[in-house]
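pipeline/complex-builder :: batch 7 item 3
reading input block
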Amino acid sequence: MTEILDGKALSKTIKARIAEKVKQIVAEGGKKPHLAAILVGEDPASQTYVNSKEKDCKEVGFDSTVLRLPASISEKELLDKIKELDENPNVDGLIIQLPLPAHIDENKVIMAVSPEKDVDGFHPVNVGKMILGLPSFVSATPLGIMTMLKEYGIETKGKNCVVLGRSNIVGRPIANLLSQKSNPGDCTVTICHSHTKNIREITLKADIIVVAIGISEFLKGDMVKEGAVIIDVGITRVADASKKSGFRLLGDVEYSTVAPKASYITPVPGGVGPMTRVALLMNTLKSREQRIS
Amino acid sequence: MTEILDGKALSKTIKARIAEKVKQIVAEGGKKPHLAAILVGEDPASQTYVNSKEKDCKEVGFDSTVLRLPASISEKELLDKIKELDENPNVDGLIIQLPLPAHIDENKVIMAVSPEKDVDGFHPVNVGKMILGLPSFVSATPLGIMTMLKEYGIETKGKNCVVLGRSNIVGRPIANLLSQKSNPGDCTVTICHSHTKNIREITLKADIIVVAIGISEFLKGDMVKEGAVIIDVGITRVADASKKSGFRLLGDVEYSTVAPKASYITPVPGGVGPMTRVALLMNTLKSREQRIS
């Protein structure tokens, strides 16, 4: 039997818990968590993401601020704006929507946010602490995946886990987290990428596969063993005239052939996506709580 | 044919290059690189390590300072001493010999050294930057291993690499470095540890094996395939009445059975050890050069 890892339902449950916690903070005379986001330019995807984050904040009772800046803004001006929000004691979490216009140095921008307010977990201090197993903000997608594994009670200890993709925001952190002495964790982890040879031979031995390779329907049924746990991070829009929207969404997993063999599998959409969204709220709440204590 | 990865000889070559570079800096009116070390307490192994570092500095023409402090020093006093050396513009690299007495918080001490002077590469900022592929100080053992692979021209791209051990100072960084888009790098990396099952099945497929598991002679000949590259990080003293010193040194690799099958192998002693020592000098020189530019 294949069980669907329902990120939509789980994220709803977690949002309800967060909303409850916010009420409690306020009842105790505290201030609501406050997420501030900076959006530079008019990229439609970025606008959609930021709007979703605003909506999510509202849903759980967080305060939110979105600072919309023109694509023409200079790096210096942007850094000044970041400093201002970062120093605002009323702000608990500060994120800068990526990508940024080409004339702005992304690394400088990431370094300009204090690690204590970096709820995206992009600052090297947070990355380093995560790697060292110290308390830190873990970026949203890996945190969402770890939360999903934990909440579904999926056994990871001693399991053979294969991560497809070595990006700094998904593949690499999830590979490190799953190989740590923790629960979820304690997996034997293999990290694969574009230079990996015989990838099928590797995935066929995996108990858990995390696919974050950015190629739609890359993982096929003949690449996985019976009973594997499948986490699909990919999301690609494909034109589809039969749909009202004109497109459909595909993951990095060929669902029709992989799902019948899997013990657990995330759908696309409705799997890792909603978990990523709720993970940002979890981090913002955590930041608020750290400021209280 | 098995080729010995001669860390002793290679480190000598690199030391000569560093000494040459120091002469050049001085000839141009610059100041010698300066490594400062803090040693707390009387641990004999720590004293030996610090003495070696002092000797290495002398050999390449670096200035060095060793601050020896009593084990009874308070955390606050130690942090003050660190601050003093860290702020001294004459100091390029600052290291605190570990372990520290139990009443001192190691993480606090590590965080007290500026990332720009943290030539041990222990600060979370340096760990995070290394993980993100940004310029950073990489800690001595992984840097020594990467340097050895590079200098011997060992092809790593697309190779299947297995790392035994997930420590923060060896296994985890080397696993991350070897899986990065770089040269050496671009390996498919599997990280194994105490919870890994069927370890022999995994090592038998490896083109490169890095053993940093802390169990002497753990890796045996029947666990490696013909032509594998073997990097042995382990070092254990074993009583041996036939030796003048009363002991002999063993690695984590059973050399007698593994070496005949290996294409390249590091001996113990004389392999990774000397490369670790020279890597600290490389980092200190790099710090000096960054201060010049």
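note: Chain B has ten helices and eleven strands.
queue -> next item
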